[in-house]
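Cross-check.
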Amino acid sequence: MAYDYLDVSGGEGPLYLKLYRSLKTAMETGKLKHGERMPSIRRFCEDLGVSRTTVEAAYQQLCVEGYLKSEPKKGYFVRSGESHTLPEQHRPVPVPILLAAKYRYNLGTDCVDAENVDLTVWRRHVREALNRHESVVSYGDHQGEPELREALSRYAARTRGLSVTPGEVVVGAGSQPLLSLLCGLAGKNRVAIDERGFAQAEQIFRDFGMEIVPLPCDENGLDPAALRKSDVDLAYISPSSPVKSGSAMPTSRRFELIRWAQERDGVLVEDDYNGELRYRARPIPAMRGMAGGSRVAYLGSFSKLLLPSVRIGYMVLPPELLERYRMRARNYNQTASKIEQLALADYITSGQMERRLRRLRKLYATKSQAMGKCLSDIFPGIPFVLEETALYFRMPVQEEEANHLCGLAAEQGVRVRPRQDGKGLSLALSFSGIALPDIPEAVRLLGLAWNKKG
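Predicted model, tokenized:
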């Protein structure tokens, strides 16, 4: 069958993107008419000699943008192209990433392995919370449900070395809402952050009109001398994340940063993302515990321990900000679901969270070893770096390569996402959302995809 309206020979990017562009142009120029039925995915694959993933990706993007519509059991049909025609400078840039559901293997950092989720146990705790009729028909506590704050204070003591009272804990719908609250309490206009950066936190700082001051790091993490010279009194750090030496920030550096905060009357914002999930060695106690509770605001969450879709995080405020919070607390609404807070309180109190933590440490140790071996076998000589608590391997790439490599991986059915830091782009290959037996095949397909480069 002839496809006179197709031209996928030129342009940049993976094949599905070329096919998408060619079909869109045909619709906008009238070569494909409104209501015209498109070839089936199977027919298109056979006629063009391309993979099913390529055609699905192109069709999916066209459906998202309204150029095609899918009718169950009938096929794909062209929608009016004229209504989509815009001046060239206003035409939307196609998103070169497939939706996660279309991938065979998901190496994204935003999911967990469905086979290792306590859905049955979590469902029971949610059901029990829903049966507490008097509790669920009222607004939640502005600071977080008392049962949850009590459970969190005990959990943080056992897993992170924190000695906190429920009155120091503030619950919210993840780290960003809590960081927003913290920025409002701190009232600062400048914040120091290490040069690697963290996009989600930086966006909150920008939303508050704060100047972000990137500071250099040595092999042990954020440089205290640079911090002293920066003339800031608020610093955002992630001491559980790997530093240049490949391990977490050492205890000696943590004490140096705490001394800066004490001497400066400053505040350290400790983002302890997955700090208790370290599996190659015993977790290092949180900085707030080392500081005796002062000058450190602590952020913790459960996205990789429980479920990413359960958006509950918690913050422990230092005395310097706690009194200010209490003066304003009644004017803040709680951002996290009261039902999920009650369920999480029971989940922690029953011991399920810590039992799950022990299981996950063993699982992720096995997964990281498996993926590390596969990567070294398929890509010898490429410096993949393990981000232990973030649960992925990082591969530095040039900025212009990132989307291209992600697109090539997508053609093989593997989802890979770029991550931006202060030194440029990397591709993050996460093992949190893929089943252990699938890791070798996913890495093999990446080898097929990326060996075609150039």
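The chain has three domains: 15-95, 106-116+355-450, 119-350. Residues 106-116+355-450 form a domain with the Aspartate Aminotransferase, domain 1 fold (CATH 3.90.1150.10). Passed to J.P. for a second look.
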